[in-house]
Amino acid sequence: MQVHEHPATSPILQQALKSALPYSINLVYRTQHPNRTKDAHILATFSPSIAQVPQCWAAAYLDRSMRPETELWIFSTGEQPDHSVPGDRFCPECSQAVLALLDYMSTLPTPPIHPDNLSTLDLAKQHEKEHPNPPPSGKYEMTMGTYMRHLLSPKMVTLGACQDAMTQVLHDTGVIRNELPGPDAELNKFLFKHSDVPPTRELPEGLRWGEMREQDIELVKARTSIPRTTRTLMSLKSVGVFEEETDTPVAWTFLGLDGSLVTLHTEEAYRGKGIAKAVAAKLFRQYAAGLAVDEEGNAWSHADVYAGNIQSESVCKSLGGKALWKCFWVRIDLERAGMLAKIM
């Protein structure tokens, strides 16, 4: 199965992705986002010049220069519930399409890590020095060094929001690195139909709306364990709530590179007042209204919430969100992927 490079504006690719909404939502958003470096690749298992979308296909967005942030998103028609094979969860031809993408990616050069992220490489080197081999359990304990360990392998890629059935396909073929974070960290994919999102409520007295500024980013990064650079965060649309008297942010969220609700946070003194719900609703309405619209005219947004995060799940449900499938962030070893599609 041949893999083709596409421009972000590829009409047939955007048609294919739109026809698969809401299941293709990550790629619909990511291919449209202006944060795209010279090292980005938009790939599909069909040509940009074809007139009709094939029945089975896969597409991906890959940008290795983003590491240690998410580098890769993949979608395949095998993820759609009405596309499954009786007695199986993933169509064999769709599995082949996914493996063809990984095979192609294994041939691409690895760009140098961005200077802003060199400190994360130091963390990885220190972790390797302290833990040269995995423990008897086969999995490193979760630390920031563990999270960065994959940076030492040029062909190791962070794959984001990988739907559970596709994760199983990749696990069965041996390309997921199980000693690194991700395979056991299940997330619920919440989908929001904009017509179901409640109106944005008024803020309590003494607070105002605003966008997050560069001067606020260090506080944002201090409130999350997920590594995101100032450069990336400043490229994202955001909504913040500020104290009028001090001009200090007390709540915020961003529209991620893949359109997901990310870094949603409310400072402890302001929790329980419905502010997180208001911030998320305002972000969807202000910045996401026309970006992921299906063939029936429904506009979609989404969020990935770790299983057991009751507070975030409650916010998503209050916005009319429904958890429709499971997904994972995993490390893919492209060295193991080379030639895989040809031998399966």
From TrEMBL:
Gene3D superfamilies: 3.40.630.30. This is GCN5-related N-acetyltransferase Rv2170-like domain-containing protein. One of its GO terms (molecular function) is acyltransferase activity, transferring groups other than amino-acyl groups. Residues 238-330 form the GCN5-related N-acetyltransferase Rv2170-like domain. PANTHER family: GLYCINE N-ACYLTRANSFERASE-LIKE PROTEIN. InterPro entries: Acyl-CoA_N-acyltransferase, Acyl_CoA_acyltransferase, GCN5-like_dom. The lineage of its organism: Eukaryota, Fungi, Dikarya, Ascomycota, Pezizomycotina.
